[in-house]
């Protein structure tokens, strides 16, 4: 028996989107009993994502919701935005809540992951078999097939190391006598759970028992993981996986923003769009 893995992936339109989603979908083709929930950060579903999902032969659910950039931003977000803007000496206006260096000021994926959780609860209520595990998967990370084997062992909440994140080669829970005794995190080590989104999975049935569990815009950056985990576990309950958190099976890789020359300015034949 293999519990279903519900992989929840927010995604947004950008030059490397199709490349990132192609790599991820082709990893997922090797994973048994996998249900991919892809949520576009957009007002409409795009053809690019719809076609990619259809051609993948994966079991999937395609959703969309646009990030509410101003309405749900907190006073803190706005203050940080204004502070960083003055720091980087850009105009006072913060388009898309990013600095001129492209650094994010607003957490990504909050509305998208919450929509996926609402979908999941509705789906499981009607399902015959509610067993499964929820994994929040960013679209540009790198996933070993071994991480999926690990998360099927989850009873409530399982955790494991994540490579290349938070200024470290590996951010990981520290394990003593088979229990999480602390963390090696360097970035915001005061986080209640200093764990990246890619470093844990949660028993899907628990979302029916805690329907209020969701991500929030009211917390500072880096606290989304803690926000969702607090509904399901304390440090003492965490189940260390990946050989007592000694193995790295997922990496927080980030795709470099490509710079493309304007084809109108180059006297060259036009190139087709990548979709
Ligand atoms: N994302 C999104 N809308 C955005 C920015 C990001 O839906 O405006 C998605 C993105 O596709 C990814 C997840 O949210 O699946 C995390 O974003 P990103 O990879 O940019 O975060 P980082 O790697 O910087 O932590
Ligand atoms: Mn990323």
Automatic annotation (TrEMBL):
It holds the Pfam family Glyco_transf_43. It is found in: Golgi apparatus membrane; Membrane. The keyword Iron does not apply. Its cofactor is Mn(2+). The keyword Nucleotide-binding does not apply. It comes from the Eukaryota. One of its GO terms (cellular component) is Golgi membrane. Its main location: Golgi. One of its GO terms (biological process) is carbohydrate metabolic process. Signal peptide: none annotated. It is a single-pass type II membrane protein. Pathway: Protein modification; protein glycosylation. Coiled coil: none annotated. GO terms for molecular function: galactosylgalactosylxylosylprotein 3-beta-glucuronosyltransferase activity; metal ion binding. Its EC number is 2.4.1.135. The active site is at 225 (proton donor/acceptor). It is an enzyme of class 2 (transferase). Gene3D superfamilies: Spore Coat Polysaccharide Biosynthesis Protein SpsA, Chain A. PANTHER family: GALACTOSYLGALACTOSYLXYLOSYLPROTEIN 3-BETA-GLUCURONOSYLTRANSFERASE 3, GALACTOSYLGALACTOSYLXYLOSYLPROTEIN 3-BETA-GLUCURONOSYLTRANSFERASE BETA-1,3-GLUCURONYLTRANSFERASE. Belongs to the glycosyltransferase 43 family. This is Galactosylgalactosylxylosylprotein 3-beta-glucuronosyltransferase. It comes from Trichoplusia ni (Cabbage looper).
